[in-house]
Structure formats: C-alpha cells, structure tokens
Design brief:
The chain has about 400 residues and is an alpha+beta fold. It has two domains: about 1-55 and about 265-400, no CATH class; about 60-255, no CATH class. Helices cover about 55% and strands about 20% of the residues. The chain has 14 helices and twelve strands. Strands 3-4-9-6-8-7 form a six-stranded mixed beta barrel. A two-stranded antiparallel ribbon has the order 2-10. Helix 2 runs antiparallel to helix 10 (about 260-300). The chain is elongated and about 100 Å long.
Length: about 400
C-alpha cells in the first residue's frame, strides 16, 4: 500500500514530459473543483431560501399545536389549565377559537378564518412583529386585526368607525331554518390593525378577541378549536407531546412546527433532493474527465509500469497506483472546491454580492451537513471513476512489447 501510494503521489504532483497529459489532468481537476464548488453553493443557496420561506410561516406557527382527533372542538377546563401553568416545560399557552367566516363591509365581501385569541396569545406567537399598520386589539373592545389582502379586497382601513365590519357564520343546530334572518349569526367589529406576511396568510386570518369569537360561533364555556403552546428552551418536545396527550386523555393530536407545515416541508425537501441529483449528474459528467485523465496517464507511464512489473510489483499493486492517483486527485480537487465554495457563500452572506431586489440579497446559509454531503459525494464518485480507469491496467498491457 505504501509503495503504491508513494508512486501515485509522484505521478499526481510531478509534471509529465508530455504536455498534453498535463493539460488533460488540469482540465479534469478543474472540473472536479468547479463541480464541488457549484454543488455546495447551490445547496447553501437552497438552505438560505428554505429558511427565508419558513421564516414567514413560523410567525404564525407555535412550537406545538393541539387539535382534536375528531370533530372541530374540545374542552379545556380549569384543572387542565392549572396543570399547563405548572408545567416547567411550557413557557406559555393560548386557547384558540377558529372557524371560517363571511366578511361584509359596504357591500364588499370576502371569506376568511376568524381566529379568536386571548391576551396571552402574543406570548406564544410574536404577532407584533408582522403588524404593518395600527395596533393589536384589547379583549374589552370589538376590535380585530386583518390581513393586508383582506384590507385591499374590502377597501377597509384601520379605526374606520363610519361603518362596522360585519362577520357572519352559519347558525349551528339541526333541522330546517324557517326564518332566513336566523340562518346566520352576526357580530360587528372595527379594524385596529393590519398585518402583512405572505399572500396566502394575508388573505386568511381575521384575529379577534376570544369572547367575541365565542359568541359569534356560539361555543360553550371552555370549548376551543386548538391549543397553541410555546416550549421552554430546555424542554424535551417528545415529553411535552406525551404530557399533552395524557392531559386530554388522548383525544387530541399534537403537531410540531414541521408537522403543521408538512406539505411545505415535503415540497422544499423534494426540491432540495432534485437540485442535489441534478448537480450530482453534472459531477458525474465532470468525473468522466478524471477517467480519461487516468487512462492517458496509464498509457504515458506504460514503460514505467512494465519496469515495476518486471521488478516484482504485482498487477494489483500497479492498478492501485493509478487508482490512488485518481482518488487523490478528486480528494484534493473536492477539498479546494469546498474551500472556494465556503469563501463564496461567506462573501455573499457578508457583502450581498447577488441581489434578488435592490433591497433583498439572495439568502444563503452554511450547513455542515451540506459540506459533508458534497465531500462524501465527490469522493465516492471519484473512487468509482478511479476504479474504472485503473481496471484498464492488465497483464497484456504490462507484457506487450
């Protein structure tokens, strides 16, 4: 092994007398460097975009969200509230009432989700950070906070007391409704603030006081749609999920942030895998140059190989020389490509070399798992390429005149 490694290093770092061989080797090494750099930069860019996309949804998403296994609601009584308050793993919690609602303002209408929240909701989710105009409502007044898309659709601004925003929901119960005026329950409210996050979320929610929402939906005392929970920094997520399920006698399902956005995470992970496979294919094509370079080196060093064979070196040892040469080439070229990729990502992060808009730099994020993935991919493909090239050495080549 030491013999083969010594010869391989000599062949790799010593210029050949044949200038064409040197050029082919340089091209092969450059291809690996560029391939490693491109794969790492793309994965880092995608990681940055992933974090950038999730940053908006995480504004609305608590650490944990408890939803009923069946039906639309469940009950949160005083004894359960006490256990939640005494749990050291739970920093804050917020009962939620949520349902689809019909909005009407000056003959303009829209469909949204009313989200009834209590005063402690802001301890679970940092809602103040997304308020574009106005302020958060107090529980004592019939004020709401709406999304910017809802505001545009209804031509509705903040603190417009000339006419209230009307909220309608179908009347609950069974049987035929004989009086059309009783088909819907209605509450009036005024807009205290407008939030702005993404197009989808901006058109979805109307945040309202808890009691106003409960009266509109005719919910019973302690009846809620969801329970949102914020964990302490030292909390064990799995243990808290088990605690919540046992607290509600396994009548609820508890979702973490990933599960609350499982469709989005699946889409982002699928896109990440697709990008990785595409650029791995580019690397495979680049490594064909390594195969060609090693084969040319075999032909160039044929007389040296014959000498080694005649001196007692085995066929396996001579093959190992060229195998190690290719493996070392991909190792060092991949390492250089990763170093340049790290430098490029650092420069983009610090100096915003590439901009999406005039004020928004292209997001990037260095993740060590991406470094590991690129490095392992380069070396595994390099080993395969070197194995293919080294297999060209045979006894016929060594014994030919």
């Amino acid at each position: 092994m030491h013999f083969s490694l010594y010869i391989a290093k000599r062949y790799l770092f010593t210029k050949s007398r044949n200038n064409a061989i040197n050029i082919i080797t340089a091209i092969a090494a450059t291809g690996v460097v560029v391939g490693a750099l491109a794969l790492f930069v793309v994965l880092s860019g995608f990681s940055g975009l992933k974090d950038f996309s999730l940053k908006f949804t995480n504004v609305f998403d608590p650490d944990l969200k408890a939803i009923p296994k069946s039906g639309k609601t469940f009950f949160l009584d005083a004894s359960k509230l006490t256990q939640l308050e005494n749990s050291p793993d739970i920093t804050a919690y917020a009962p939620i009432i949520e349902e689809r609602v019909f909005l009407n303002f000056r003959d303009r209408n829209s469909i949204a989700h009313i989200k009834g929240v209590q005063y402690n909701y802001q301890n679970v989710v940092s809602i103040d950070s997304i308020l574009a105009v106005g302020e958060w409502f107090s529980q004592e007044h019939s004020h709401v906070v709406i999304g910017s898309d809802i505001s545009n659709r209804l031509s509705l601004g903040i603190f417009d007391y000339s006419e209230p925003l009307e909220l309608y929901v179908p009347t609950t119960g069974t049987g035929q409704i004989t009086d059309p005026s009783k088909a819907f329950r209605r509450e009036n409210a005024f807009v205290a603030g407008i939030y702005h996050v993404t197009d989808e979320l901006n058109s979805k929610y109307v945040f309202a006081p808890f009691e106003l929402s409960r009266e509109l939906l005719d919910y019973k005392e302690n009846e809620i749609s969801f329970l949102e929970v914020k964990l302490s920094e030292t909390a064990n997520e799995k243990e808290v999920i088990t605690f919540l399920k046992s607290l509600f006698d396994n009548q609820i399902t508890v979702k973490n942030r990933v599960q609350q956005n499982d469709a989005l995470y699946k889409m982002l992970n699928s896109e990440n895998l697709a990008v990785y496979l595409i650029f791995t294919l580019v690397l495979v094509i680049a490594l064909f140059n390594v195969v060609g370079s090693i084969i040319m080196m075999i032909l160039d060093k044929k007389h040296n190989a014959k000498t080694l064979f005649n001196l007692g070196a085995t066929l396996k040892q001579i093959r190992r020389v060229f195998f190690l040469q290719g493996a070392l080439m991909t190792f060092f070229a991949g390492l250089l490509g990763l170093t340049l990729g790290l430098l490029l990502v650092f420069l983009q992060d610090q100096f915003s070399l590439v901009m999406i808009t005039s004020s928004l730099p292209y997001p990037v994020k260095v993740e060590w798992q991406n470094l590991f993935i690129v490095f392992i991919t380069i070396n595994i493909l390099g080993l395969f390429a070197s194995k293919i090239a080294a297999s060209r050495v045979n006894e016929g080549l060594l014994m030919s005149q």
